Amino acid sequence: MMIKKENLIWIAIKTGLLSGVIAIFLCLIGMVEVFSKRDVIEHIITLGDFILLVSAVSAGVIAARAASNPDQEKQPLKNYLAGALAGLTTGILIVAFIGLSQTINLRSVFLSASPSLFKLLTFKGGTSWFWIYPAIGLASGVLGTTLFLLPEKFRQPITRAISITFLMALFSGLFRVIMINRAGSTAKLAKYLFGQTGLTLSGAIIFFIAIIVISMFWSARSKNLQEGFSRIPKRGQTSIRVAVYVLLAYVVIMLPQVSGPFIAQVVVIVSLYALMGLGLNITLGFAGLLDLGFVAFFAVGAYTVGLLTSYGIFGLQHIPFWVAVPIAVLVAMMFGAFLGLPVLGVRGDYLAIATLGFGEIVRLLAGSDFLAPFFGGPQGIIGIQKPCLGTLGEFLKVDVPRICNGIEFGGPKEIYYLAVASAILVAFIALRLQKSRLGRAWMAIREDEDVAEALGINLIQTKLLAYMLGAAFAGLGGAIFTVLVGSIFATSMQLIVSINVVALIIVGGMGSIPGVIVGAIALIGMPELLREVSEYRFLFYGAALIMMMLAKPEGLWPSQATLRELHHEDPGEDLEVASSQAKA
Amino acid sequence: MSILNIENVHTYYGNIHALKGININIEKGEIVTLIGGNGAGKTTTLRTISGLLKPRDGSVSLNGEDILKYQAHEIVYKGISMVPEGRGVFARLTVLENLEMGAFSRNSKEEVTRNMDRVFTLFPRLKERRTQVAGTLSGGEQQMLATGRGLMSNPTILLMDEPSMGLAPVLVELIFDTIQQINKEGTTIMLVEQNALMALTIADRGYVLQTGEIILSDTAENLKKNPTVQKAYLGME
Fold first, then answer.
1. Maximum CA pair distance of chain A?
2. Theoretical Cys-Cys bridge with A372: which of A125, A350, A377, A579, CB 3.0 to 4.6 Å?
């Protein structure tokens, strides 16, 4: 029994130390300081405070969980002891860190350990920090333990309320702008709920309570609602569905009008990444062919449109955007085949390296002095025509530069419609492809190439089609990107774009079409919206990927096959499928 | 009339001479077994027939037509189907989806339904488990699935690679009974096995392969009595 107790204390301290180290890490990379400029609840809690609090509270939760033994009866005291100890340790570690920083100059190594950080951490000087951190740590630990001990019925609404309120606070600027634009009582409400940054105290309380109420009501009634829905006759169900779609469509159409150009631009970028993601989802998600140079096809689409429509010196033609786009998609498909042919026999890791090389080659060639006479080299291609919807006569006119007398897709607010419509169209095509004969052939190749071939699937044709269709979608994305920016530079076709696309597919759920959209929103949209976060974007990517792999390896919105693979109830005696490699 | 004719086939893995001029002849309606130890070239022979490996020399003909000119995926359309070694089921797909994959080379819906019914009659177990993920089936069920998948293209000749591998004796017997049943229904079978006794029990004729060469060929009955076979493959003195 004694040994057990010691173990428990040690686990609690270890958890506390770990979360303390994380808290110190967040301070040292400058995140706490940057985030403290932004309020979660106006004048009360900043984002910087919030992340420190979260680390202490989660230490409490983890320690409390470690303290509970499912075989024994509940001993809340033990849980509280562990949770409080873990929280306290976190606090003490932060105190030690501040103390250390006052005796030696950390800044010679850690650039972000600035005097202003410590001014912040010590509450503008004084010595109160010496007891405040342990006290807050202790309280957080107790709070974490309480959260852990609460029955599921209460815990779920509370955690949900905390996280949604937090999200509301993060995106408060967004809601505020939308609501204030519409004058009158909405504007007054907005000022009541949202502060300059973050929520007002009353706003936070209102959201928190509202979400708890809705959440509890929902968990009590959702079953009834679902049953009620299934009891409505078929025709009624269809009309409800149609109504939901119409409402969604209305929101999508109206969004740029109420939100302004910034949000529209974010949605455009998300849609472009979604287009690339849907493309890579075909090669990687469906056919299982890892491509780390996917940005190359995006570049091909962008450059084709640029060369065909620019009225700058590199413009070869001045054809309208609408004619250039199908050509760009075709050229991207050709490049897909061009990449696909040499790497047909290459599998797995080797394929990743080969495609990585291809992506870099395309970028370097496009930006090289060698090809500068054609692609502008480092100067890029500028003066790209905006798409214009006008009369047919307008369409055929070839004066340079073209003056648009119809609807011009000039800024993000207009290109929004182009990008969103393309993403929806492509998602629909991908959905149809997934269910087609070709989709099944891709699936078979992903699972086992040799068996697939032995079943009558033409590997060469099927793989090439995967590369070509994936490239086509990315090419379309590139074409829209070009007119959004109005210029192309080889420097925007970095490797990191390809990596982002792979990451969003993994986070969303490999092989899942809704997953791609969710992944694009989570990995691309969120950091774009949160200016403070974008500085630490890659830290978040890394953390998000690791967390996903540990907690939800199937992705946010997984495909059926992945879900089954990772969560089957009864794995048979021999799960491993011996490769059909020749052994004879 | 012989439906499958393998003449003087030489297959290589890079520089390794795996098949050194083998001749095999299979008549319509037969069960022919190919026995031999590890590394004798049994799987290589099957992979050569199904087009996954291309021989450097020799000929493989089906119903008198040279099939070496076809790609592996085209050979399925000619009526040769393979049940790979180690089963090779698509672990993440359901039983039903696996079977549908087997019918990839068949376009007629009625034919697919007919073949599916046939498979479910042969393996009632698969029907019970049709919505289950293949990876969660037991070894025996996976073997049934692989065999069923091979039958979905309604082949004239079914190549089976080590169907008894890693299975309990009871299951081996069940699988071999089914092989006989499939044969009775009119499918010619070429069976590669390390379990020589079982294979020779159900087969009409057999070939003994040793380091890439056929050292013996006879009726199954005679092979069973052959002292060399008894000593090397049946574990008798």
1. 90
2. A377
Phi, psi of A46 (to 5 degrees): -90, 170
pLDDT at B187: 94
Residue tagged 């087997």 (tokens)? B102
- Give whole-number Cα distances, A333 to A246, A339, A464, B35, in Å: 34, 10, 10, 49
* Contact status of A328 with chain B (Cβ, < 8 Å): no
Q: In sequence order, which ranges of chain B are alpha helices (DSSP H)?
A: 42-49, 72-78, 95-102, 109-122, 124-128, 139-151, 169-184, 196-202, 220-225, 227-232
B1-79+157-237 CATH, one of 3.20.20.30, 3.30.70.270, 3.40.50.300, 3.30.700.20: 3.40.50.300
Domain residue limits, chain B: 1-79+157-237, 88-154
Residues in chain B: 237
Q: Which of A361, A332, A511, A380 is nearest to A433 (CA)?
A: A511
What are A512-566's pLDDT values in tens digits? 999 999 999 988 888 888 776 777 888 888 888 888 888 888 888 887 767 766 6
The residue of chain A with its CA nearest to that of B44 is: A584
What was the ipTM of the complex prediction? 0.87
- Rounded-to-10 torsion of CA A479, A483, A487, A491: -40
The span from the CA of B222 to the CA of A265, in Å, is 81
Strands B57-62 and B65-66: antiparallel
| Distance in angstroms (rounded) separating the CA atoms of residues A427 and A420 | 10
Task: Verify whether the Cβ–Cβ distance B141 to A453 is below 8 Å.
Answer: no
CA atoms within 13 A on the CB side of A134: 9
Instruction: Judge whether A561 and B128 are in contact, CB under 8 Å.
Output: no
Kindly report whether the global pTM for this prediction surpasses the value 0.90: no
Given CB atoms, is B88 within the 8 Å cutoff of chain A?
A: yes
